[in-house]
Amino acid sequence: MKRIKLACLLLVFVQQVVLGTHDVYIVTMEGDPVVSYRGGVEGFPATAVDLDEEMDVTSETVTSYSLHLRRHHDNLLDSLFVEGTYEKLYSYHHLINGFAVHMSSLQAEFLRKAPGVKHVERDMKIQKLTTHTPQFLGLPTGVWPTGGGFDRAGEDVVIGFVDSGIYPQHPSFSSHKTDPYGPVPRYKGKCEMDPVTHRSFCNGKIVGAQHFAKAAMAAGAFNPDIEFASPLDGDGHGSHTAAIAAGNNGIPVRMHGHEFGKASGMAPRARIAVYKVLYRLFGGYVADVVAAIDQAVQDGVDILNLSVGPNSPPTATRTTFLNPFDAALLSAVKAGVFVAQAAGNGGPFPKTLVSFSPWITTVAAGVDDRRYKNHLTLGNGKLLSGLGVSPATHGNKSFSLISAADALLGSSATKYSALDCQRPELLNKRKVQGKILLCGYSFNYISGTASIKKVSQTAKSLGATGFIVAVENSYPGTKFDPVPVSIPGILITDVSKTTDLIDYYNSSTTRDWAGRATVFKATAGIADGLAPTLYNSAPQVALFSSRGPDVKDFSFQDADVLKPDILAPGNLIWAAWAPNGTDESNYAGEGFAMVSGTSMAAPHIAGIAALIKQKNPKWSPSAIKSALMTTANTLDKGSHPLRAQQYTTSEMMTLSRATPFDCGSGAVNPKAALDPGLVLDATHEDYITFLCSIPDVNHSEVSNIAGASCNSSSKGQRPYDLNIPSITISQLRGTVTVKRTVTSVSEETETYTIMTRMPPEIALDVTPAALTVLPGASRDITVTLTARSVTGTYSFGEIRMKGDRGHLVRIPVVAMGFK
Questions:
Q1: What are phi and psi of 477, to 5 degrees?
Q2: According to its UniProt record, which residues of this chain constitute the active site (predicted)?
């Protein structure tokens, strides 16, 4: 017996050596998943339900068919490979029929040719796409009262967060200081136990908490000594996004003895379901994300927030829309789940989006009306502007300046980058005490561990009255954010102002024959930067927010789909933080953080979608998306056209008029989105037709990955025929006619007058010029675009439908004329 076991082990070892290194692969199989299965397999009744019906995931029908699919996956692998040479990580059965497996590239090639296998794709990594905003968006006065007030806003709507987990002890997620939360019977998610405290991660506000890391572990990226093998947030990102969408209302934001206002989620009574896929050191993997999405929809979430995205467009498929990640989300939308995804942080450069598909609501990041700015007054009378959320120097007085270079202790300090003031033991406390410490901004702030918080701690431990961090060199693409600190401090980001500061310091400092500073005559005072300044030139598209046009394949060819879809606040957003979070070194150990990213913009939309879902529980995800887009603002608070932050040729930031490639249909308007008048709806079949209409796309590939076949009705269709609230034609040749169907969601009959706006290079006409729509009825409009001249650039316009009962419906139009 021992010899047989030894021989088997030897065979496994030999196979592993011969087969080579292993990777994680995502495999899709023939046969429908649970959400699409309408019968056909002997002994297994249909499991698919219509959109307005609720699927019972605990029914014997669903569980038996799910088990059938899992067993089929296991049997296939067992029949092909020797046990021990591979590891099946997940069976996907609810949204897609397939599995994730850790195996060699040779095994993957063998599996591609196996009967019943549609598609095999190597796993990809994902990345994070890293509060005053309820007031800025008008929620307390214009939206929450319509749903019963803040204490009912989002009631019983479940938002799933596919992110880095949650810190359940945070007051933003507490259930103690609110009205009791009742059960949500339709939500079937489970709650993992904290392995340290042995307490559940759920509390009534948090209704589900699970973590997914099998692919990360198989890839060797998961370090159990650093990462938490639980839903606990060791990063901060997940807690922050959950609080933005659904955090409790009126939570005091306190830091360093100062209160920065009250934090609230967009839908403060919505429930939170946690699906952890992101980890501290490496981000995450698509196989884990697909498993989380599959589980979330099976559990019964209403909304999915994805502040994550792939590192690059998928390479294994011919189009960005066909990959396991987007296919799972397509099935999620089919199941009635609204999906908000961050656009990406690759701006302001074009074609940097990491969210591609029309069934997903892609969210760009905006700068709201609150800015934290401060200034420094030099002894020579000059005022230097900068960033700093700090108190003023004592008594609003000026104090002597001392450069870190003039406070170094001994030659051993040259081993370190002491001038960035990260190590107090390298500086002379006797010299620094009572002065303002002048520090440099090194590359260690960008790629290392340096932080403004550490400068503050250094200055405080040395007895300094304050600190200045001055940027001497240009760092293209670097985003400088103000950081709350407990002592007076300021960051000077303008290199020219740093030059003024250093010139003044050098001319006012007396040195001996060896260049050592002996008398410090330069003085400065730091103003109070704790209170923000409010601007009317808001919102603006944030510099870092990824831009369109959308791409349809890895060669970056333009797609006939407008992306991003909408703009939401994503710059300097105050929200909950995990005290053990490592994502932002400036907020290590803190309970709140003020951070930026499209990661912060997406949960604004997820929370607002929850408010729409609460009011209109039967609306489809595409109807919710349409309501958000057609009512979006194209003017800022000062009634000027929206602007986008851009780079000049000299890499300075400037503002230009925003286009739909910057902000989609515009800035979200929650009050209007709750009552849009008309919506443009799209079904799962419409999305399949869209996929089948993409030029050069193999129809069998659509069937393999999306799980639905292209039929005769898709012939003659074009991608821009999809009934979404935008029109994008990347290559307009001659005249093209497009149809859009609008459906009334108003309780009254309304007559709409239709107007168009388009640059002269493109002629834009719509018929009829006016139409009357009965409650619940649908009407078609015909849109004709004609290329009058070829400019090699896109033209941006819009269709405006103005109703006689006050509704305004906007559809952005984007086209480039071709010969």
A1: 85, -5
A2: 163 (charge relay system), 237 (charge relay system), 599 (charge relay system)
Q: Which of 162-171, 242-251, 367-376, 703-712 has the lowest mean pLDDT?
A: 703-712
What is the count of structural domains for the chain? 4
**Model pLDDT for residues 391-407, shown as the tens digit of each residue:** 999 888 999 999 999 99
Token pair listed for 602? 């997406």
Q: Which residues pair with 569 in a beta bridge?
A: 366
* Whether residue 504 sits in one domain with residue 545: no
**Could you give the C-alpha distances from 661 to 10, 633, 639, 648, 658, in angstroms and in order?**
58, 15, 21, 18, 8
- Which domain CATH number covers 764? 2.60.40.2310
Which of 662, 677, 692 is a domain's end point? 677
Q: Residue type at 488? A: P
Residue 467 domain flag: yes
Same domain, 185 and 303: yes
Q: How far apart are CA 29 and CA 627, in angstroms?
A: 36
Please say whether the beta carbons of 596 and 542 come within 8 A: yes
Same domain for 176 and 261, yes or no, is yes
pTM of the model: 0.90
The CA-CA-CA angle for residues 716, 721, 722, to 5°, reads: 125
CATH code at 415? Answer: 3.50.30
Full DSSP string of 476-543: TTPPP---B-SS-EEEE--HHHHHHHHHHHHHHEEE-TTS-EEEE--EEEEPP-SS-EE-SS--EE-T
Asked if 599 is an active-site residue, the reply is yes
Is residue 193 domain-shared with residue 301, that is, in the same domain?
Answer: yes
pLDDT digits (tens, 9 = 90+) for 124-150: 887 765 544 566 666 666 666 676 666
Q: Active-site residue among 22, 94, 119, 237?
A: 237
- Which domain, by its residues, includes 88? 2-122
Same-domain check for residues 756 and 769: yes
Question: Rounded to the nearest 10 degrees, what angle do helices 598-615 and 237-246 cross at?
Answer: 30
* Cα four-point dihedral sign 234, 237, 239, 240: positive
163 as an active site residue: the answer is yes
| Closest CA relative to residue 295, chosen from 394, 192, 442 | 192
Domain boundary among 620, 651, 677: 677
Q: Which of 32, 163, 288, 565 is catalytic?
A: 163
